Structures are given as C-alpha cells and as structure tokens.
Amino acid sequence: MTPLEKDLEAIIEQSLINRGYEKRTQTYDDEKRTQTYDTARCLIPKDVIQFIQRTQAEIWEQLKQHHGDATETKFLNYLASEITSRGTLDVLRNGIKTYGCTFKLVYFQPNSSRNPELQTLYEQNSFTILRQFHYSKKTPNHSLDWGIFLNGIPIFTAELKNNFTWQDIQDAKEEYCKQRDSTEPLFTLGRCLCHFAIAPDEVEITTHLQDSKTKFLPFNKGHKQGKGNPPHPTSCRTAYLWEEIWQPDSVLNLIKNFIQLTPEKRLIFPRYHQLDAVRKLLADALAKGVGQRYLIQHSAGSGKSNTIAWLSHQLKNLFDPNDQRVFNSIIVIQRSQHR
Fold first, then answer.
1. Cβ neighbours around 325 below 10 Å, total
2. Do 154 and 185 form a contact (C-beta atoms < 8 A)?
3. Which among 189, 164, 160 is positioned nearest to 175, based on CA atoms?
4. Helical H segments across 289-321, by residue range
5. pLDDT tens readout for residues 29-78
6. Could you give the residue ranges of the DSSP H alpha helices within 105-168?
7. What phi, psi does 301 have (nearest 5°)?
8. CA-wise closest residue to 19 among 125, 113, 97
9. Which helix (H) or strand (E) holds 135?
C-alpha cells in the first residue's frame, strides 16, 4: 500500500535520523530576535557556530580577538556573503578566510588512515533536517517539504507527492516551477546543490530553479531495462534515495568527488546510473585490485564523459587497507565515433 504523504515524510525522517541526522524545528525567538533558520543569511546559525567551535576552537578564539562579542554576527555575515559570491560547493570544498583565520565548513573523509585526526574531524560533521521548511523572508507563509543541511548550510531541498492523494511527480515539479520564486536567495544557482521532486515511484532532480524554464532530470535506478525503479521489499520504490543517497557518507562523497560547477555556470549533479557505476567500479577495484575488465552500457547522451572523469579522478585516490595506492597511473583512451 502506498503511504500517505505525511506518513512518507515520517518514514523518511525516521530513516534519516537512524542514519545520523538530527531534526530541527523552525522557531523564532522574539526576545532575542533569532530564528532557527535565518532567511536573510540562508543558514542555521546555531549549527554553523557549534560546528566551528567544536572542530576549530583555537582558530575561533583568534577571531574573537578581532571582534569580541560581535564575533558570531561578523562570522555569519561573512560566511553568507562568501556563499553568495562563490557558491556553496566552493565554500564547502575550500573554506573561508577572514582576518587571517582560515575555517573549514566541512571535513571530508580522508583517502587513507595515515592521519587519524582527520577521521575524528570527519565524524564531527552535522546533518540536520527541517520539515515544512519556511525559507522566505519575503513570503514567510511559503514552505518546502524538506530542507537538508550540512553543518548549518543548506545543501538540498525536496518536495514530496503521493499518488494516493491524486498527486504525482509532476505535481512536485510544478511546485518548484510555478510556486517557488527563483529569485529567492535560497534558490539562486549555487546556493543549494540539488532540488529533489519525489514520489513513491520516481525521483527527479534539478540544480537550477528558473521558474517555468526549470529542467528536471530523472534520478531513478531503472527497472527491467526501462525507466522507473524496482520494487522495494519493505518500503516504496524510491526508498533508495533516503536509505542510500542521502546517507551522510554518501552525501559527503558527492560533495567532495561528484558535484561540479562548470565554467559555463552549470551545476552538475550525477544521475543515478552515473553515481552507481562509479561507486560499484571503485568498490570492485578496491576488493580485487588491478587487472579486471568491465563493460558498462551507456545510452547516447547519458553522460559517459562525466562518468569516465569521475571514475578516473577517484581511482587516482584509491588506497588499499595498507594505505598503498591501488593505481599508480590512470590512462583514458576514448575512441571517436566519427570516421
């Protein structure tokens, strides 16, 4: 039986909490004039500051020598301005520098175990969820079904629809296209890394909201050599999204190794078949070592070049349990289809 939309939200929420997420409830403190989600800065301020103080306490104390009691406000304002100008992806990958103090906004999983401290810092990353996410200062009554945050920074949004309520994936997409103002700070290109339209049977994604011009792409596993998704033994067909793709290790891997902002200002998020192919090849190469042969079937226009690039980049950084590189060099030979 297909779960009702509210039940599906509860299922997703519990699944994410079981995998390490924390739930936030959106509130506003009139006395302190603070809110859980800061609609002007597009941040959860408390989560940002807690992550910085937890992982970079000494550098934080250095910054306080410059700003005193205004340190939090100055830091959050600067972080928000850097995300606006550089984009979330660049800020997460390269951090920010202010008054001679360099801060990381995320710690990625180290390629080898030679530095245990990096693994400890990696485990300090914080993933949070906001349901019925009120994202707008201009229209405070508007809300998204989901906001997903990494260390207080929004990375994904989602709209959920359910066939049982006579709504499907098209309704989720139309909400983004017709009811979400693309000029909102949260929806500008590069602020969020992906927007998900979700139904029990299908998932589609976009990285750039452009009102009626928004283009969505399928993010499905495929079923019986066709579109869609296979049945799930205990849940709906799209459960792989929150059980696998949104799992914290998976998200951090996506941010570190897959998501791209091209020189032409296109934000690229891998399709499911690309992500699946690369991850399976890496796992098999790690388990079996060099010298294996693989055949991957890609249809025309399905992103072969990106799959090759993502795989090559990550094979280069593949280490075995003894912290030795699996591959010393990577050679890519691409045969032209033109004669």
1. 14
2. no
3. 160
4. 304-316
5. 655 555 899 999 999 999 999 999 999 999 999 999 999 999 999 999 99
6. 116-122
7. 75, 15
8. 125
9. none
